[in-house]
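### Sample
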Amino acid sequence: MDYELFWISGSPYAWRVMLTLGYKAIPFKSHRIDVSTREHKSPEYLRLNPRGQVPTLTANGAVITESVAIMAFLEKAHPEPALFGDSPLETARIWEIIFEFENYVRDQLSIEIVRPLLRGLAQNDPTAMRASASSSIDSLQWIERILEHEDFLAGNRVSAADIVALPNLQMLARVGRRPEAVEMELGLNDFGATLPAIARWLSRMEAVPGYHAAYPPHWRSSETE
C-alpha cells in the first residue's frame, strides 16, 4: 500500500502519526506543509482535508484524517509491532488511557499553558499562568503514578497510549523552559524535579524506533543554532 502523509512541523497530532509510521517501519511519502504560506488552507489541501488541519494520510488514494484514527488504521493494516494491545484487556487499558488523556488533560495543557507561551500572551497575567501551571502539574499526577511503577503507560512496552501523550508532553516541557516561563516560576522548566517519573519516561521514549525521524525538524534546527 502506498502512503502519503501531510504534516506540519511541531504539530503534536502529526507527530503521533509520524512516530507510528516510524515505529512500525512503514515507508511513506512525506509532504511537509508550509504554514507561513497558509498551504494548509489552500484549495488543493482543503480538497483532502476540509478542516485545513493536519495530519492527513492517503492510502492508495483513500483519505484518512484525525491522528488517532490514522493510528488505528495503520494498526489494522500493519499489526506488528502491536501498538493497541494483544489481549482484550490490554487493548481496553490502552484506549482508556488515550481517552483519559484526550478528554481531561490535552486541552488543559494546550489552551492554558502552551498557547499563551507560544503566542506571547503568558506575561499578560502571570498569576493566572502560575495557577494554570500548578493545575496542569496536578492533572498529570495520574500519569506520574503509572510511570512510577511501569516503564510505559500501558505496561512494559510502548503502546499507542505513549505515542498519543508524548508530543503534548514534549511540547509542555519545551515551552516550560522558555525564559518567560522560568521568570514566572511556572515550575515546568525541570520535569526531573516536578514530574520525575514522566521525565524518565520521556528519556525512554527517545530510544523508541522512529523517534528521531519524527522529531519536529524546526525544533532540531533551533536547538543547534
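Residues 94 and 154 are 6 Å apart (CA to CA). This sample (Glutathione S-transferase family protein) is used throughout the tutorial notebook.
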